[in-house]
Design goal:
The chain is α+β, with helices and mostly antiparallel strands and 767 residues long. Among the domains are: 53-198, Orthogonal Bundle (Hypothetical protein af1432); 247-388, Beta Polymerase, domain 2 (2-Layer Sandwich); 521-599, no CATH class; 622-684, no CATH class; 692-766, 2-Layer Sandwich (Alpha-Beta Plaits). Helix 3 runs parallel beside helix 5 and helix 12 (225-239) packs across helix 13 (241-253). It is built from 32 helices and 20 strands. Belongs to the relA/spoT family. It catalyses: GTP + ATP = guanosine 3'-diphosphate 5'-triphosphate + AMP.
Length: 767
């Protein structure tokens, strides 16, 4: 390392890129801001420093570690050639992005293979280069890292949620084999968020939301807290720029750095006087998103947040940590209930430290974090510390323990068989807030906030959860859906060995682990019951969706859709629905598609023959074959309009009821042998000029003068209104139901198009 340079880790701060200028060569934040950037500005607001190959080489040399420069150079040459001539939205050459990602990977202390994979991470996805090419050039290790980061762009999915879930599943699977995949992906997302101003507005918000919900929590779980905090801050800047600016302004108005500098000096002097030598003292200001969560989301005032400012004391031994805690409490007044011992009870991501909040002599509260050097390395770099501090894959046993949650999540998903659950389970399992409860023997159980006693029981063992009949909290009986709080001692009361869980528990439990174990029990122990339950539930939902299938034809219909739902046969699908492995909501879209496909095929096969309209008379604009001037009424179930293919049903007591040919009630009735003879062919007369009633439903953002604008639009095109009803619904929306007069389907389409142009109208549908 060049003389006079501070070690990289001494300069490391998650907020460096937001609150103060950044040295040209330092840490993960090196690419965030040029050194002359104004204080408190975002990287996107000033000229970005572009990482070049020469700068990357300088940084590799300055790291002092022995890297395989031959491999890294070869990776750069291949990436540079593959991306040649391609530019990013911001206008800079595309190769700048892989170089910046490689630099971030380097700053986290990763190995040569990781840097090479970072340089190559987009070549398979965006260029003709294949994985086979990478394997031949760099070996299987680098190729597998690149494959883990590559998105599934070539596969067609029915909706964007399924695509997201499958991409995430692929990445988590690769991560469970090699955590470096996720570290590269986090660095990729970090640089994308730093340069996100080039994205269109909607894409910026979508990426920010995905980053906040998925990638920042994963970075937190991996213990890479600096990356996690920067991802959160940058996402917040896109999602709520006003809230971001408010908090940024509050921080800049307070002289926090001066206050922390004074406090650090006092603590350092006291430690030396007490014989504790060699302590390193760092200072930090809480991240903007951390403050945002407490001020905006928890409705606290700025002065009610006690850990905005923090001093970190880093020592050599564990004994010194606890001695220093005593000294701090002697120097300053500690706040009650603000002491946390994460050394004896580490967080799930491996974080260890003593936290205490005290009041300074100026009356300003601040947090003191006390930890050993090894704990600090772990807190700064998380799982990446294995490579930064030369353990690498040699420390794989520890890594396997740290990454057990990934394998557990994927196993839960394998049992669940429902890709839509992955995002939900990941979000609930990675919640940053956690509670710590104890068994009567003193074992610590970590659970996400909101977890119940049932989650607690299943966290101990699946057999304990399955046999649970009640529980005691602090020696007092409570309901089994009691929400667990930190520090509670929970005793699970067990029933007989053959006791099993209740299906209702799936609606109560919070963790994916508990859900998976409950589903597993039902899958193994109640197959026949699951099949019947699933079949009844599915048939009921199909009827609710106006899909009428005779009971003896249901199995055949469901069997024809099974492949699309990743099941071998109808029984397997029924069983999966019965034990909760697949949700009805995920099945219905594909079943509806199959139903519509069958209806259209039946419609082609059962074309009704045309008659000579000149030989018959029309009634209410409708010609019914075999009848002259018969009474006509239009069915309310499908409300046919001129232009819709129609069919007639001879009623008992009132002429002929007219339905659309595609009406599910009509199709179902035609298949009934007792009703089939009463269906007759019908047509619209060519001279139809009458006005027909049609129902419309308008969904719009709720606002003043919405009804006035809707009525004005209808008046402009001279459409009569028979009835109108408006109501508020959730998500700040309103629903307006109208019955209007129209001439035919073409007229109706013109009315719908006009209403769709009214301000804040989201959707107009025929009801």
């Amino acid at each position: 390392m060049p003389e006079g340079k501070k070690p990289a880790e001494d300069l490391y701060s998650a907020k460096t890129h937001l609150h103060q200028p950044v040295p040209e060569v330092s840490t993960v934040n090196a690419t965030a801001l040029p050194a002359d950037a104004p204080e408190g500005t975002l990287p996107s607001e000033v000229r970005r420093e572009i990482v070049t190959w020469e700068k990357l080489c300088e940084a590799i040399k300055a790291s002092g570690k022995a890297y395989n420069m031959e491999m890294i150079t070869k990776a750069y040459d291949l990436a540079n050639k593959a991306h040649n001539g391609v530019c990013r939205r911001s206008g800079e050459p595309y190769i700048c992005h892989p170089l910046a990602v490689a630099r971030l990977v380097l700053d986290l202390g990763m190995d040569s293979e990781s840097i090479a994979a970072a340089l190559l991470h987009d070549v398979v996805e965006d260029t003709p280069t294949t994985l086979e090419d990478l394997t031949a050039a760099f070996g299987e290790e680098v190729a597998l890292l690149v494959d883990g980061v590559t998105k599934l762009t070539k596969i067609q999915f029915s909706n964007i949620e399924e695509l997201q879930a499958e991409n995430l599943r692929k990445m988590l699977l690769a991560m469970s084999r090699d955590v470096r995949v996720m570290i590269i992906k986090l660095c990729d997302r970090l640089h994308n968020m730093r340069t996100g101003d080039a994205w269109p507005e909607q894409k910026r918000r979508d990426k920010a939301r995905e980053t906040m919900e998925v990638y920042a929590p994963i970075a937190n779980r991996l213990g890479i807290l600096n990356v996690k905090e920067e991802l959160e801050d940058r996402s917040l800047h896109y999602l709520d720029p006003v809230g971001y600016e408010e908090i940024s302004k509050m921080l800049s108005e307070r002289a926090g750095e001066e206050f922390l500098a004074r406090v650090s000096g006092v603590i350092e002097l006291r430690l030396k006087e007490s014989g504790i030598e060699g302590a390193t003292i760092k200072r930090r200001v809480k991240s903007i998103y951390g403050i945002y969560r407490k001020t905006i989301m928890q409705n606290k005032s700025f002065d009610e947040i006690y850990d905005i400012y923090a001093v970190r004391v880093i020592l050599d031994t564990l004994a010194e940590c606890y001695s220093t805690l005593g000294l701090i409490h002697d120097m300053y007044h500690p706040l009650p209930n603000r002491f946390k011992d994460y050394i004896s009870t580490p967080k799930p991501n491996g974080y260890q430290s003593l936290h205490t909040t005290v009041i300074g002599h100026e009356g300003i509260p601040f947090e003191v974090q006390i930890r050993t050097r090894k704990m600090d390395e772990q807190a700064e770099y998380g799982v990446a510390a294995h490579w930064k501090y030369k353990e690498g894959l040699d420390g794989h046993d520890k890594l396997d323990e740290r990454l057990a949650w990934v394998s557990q999540l994927l196993e839960n998903q394998r049992v669940s068989e429902d890709s839509g659950n992955l995002l939900h389970d990941l979000k609930s399992d990675l919640l940053p807030e956690e509670v710590f409860a104890f068994t009567p023997k003193g074992d610590v159980i970590n659970l996400p906030t909101g977890a119940t006693c049932i989650d607690f029981a299943y966290a101990i063992h699946s057999a304990v959860g399955n046999r649970m009949v009640g529980c005691k909290v602090n020696n007092r009986m409570v309901p089994i859906d009691h929400i667990v709080s930190t520090g509670e001692i929970i005793e699970v009361i067990l029933g007989p060995a053959d006791k099993g869980p209740s299906r209702d528990w799936l609606k109560i439990v919070r963790t994916s682990e508990a859900k998976s174990k409950i589903r597993n029990w039902f899958k193994k122990m109640r197959r026949e019951e699951n099949i019947q339950e699933g079949r009844d539930t599915l048939a009921r939902e199909l009827r609710r969706e106006m899909i009428f299938i005779p009971d003896d034809e249901l199995d055949e219909f469901i069997g024809s859709c099974c492949r699309r739902l990743r099941q071998n046969n109808a029984e397997e699908l029924y069983a999966a629905i019965g034990y909760g492995g697949i949700t009805i909501a995920n099945c219905l879209p594909k079943l509806k598609e199959e139903w519509q496909k069958r209806k259209s095929e039946e419609g082609k096969n059962e074309q009704l023959a045309k008659v000579d309209l000149s030989k018959v008379h029309a009634t209410d604009g409708v010609v019914v074959e075999g009848f002259d001037n018969t009474p006509i009424k239009f069915a309310k179930c499908c409300s046919p309009l001129p232009g819709d293919p129609i069919v007639g049903f001879i009623t008992r007591g009132f002429g002929v009821s007219i339905h659309k040919q595609s009406c599910v009630n009509a199709i179902s009735s035609m298949k009934d042998p007792t009703n089939a003879p009463r269906w007759v062919k019908a047509y619209w007369a060519d001279s139809v000029k009458d006005s027909y009633k049609a129902g419309l439903e308008i969904v719009a953002l709720d606002r003043n003068e919405l009804l006035r604008d809707v009525l004005s639009a209808l008046a402009d095109i001279r459409v009569p209104i028979y009835t109108m009803n408006a109501r508020q619904v959730e998500n700040n929306c309103a629903v307006v139901s109208l019955t209007i007069g129209i001439n035919n389907t073409e007229h109706l389409n013109r009315v719908v198009a006009r209403l769709s142009k009214v301000k804040d109208v989201l959707k107009v549908t025929r009801s």
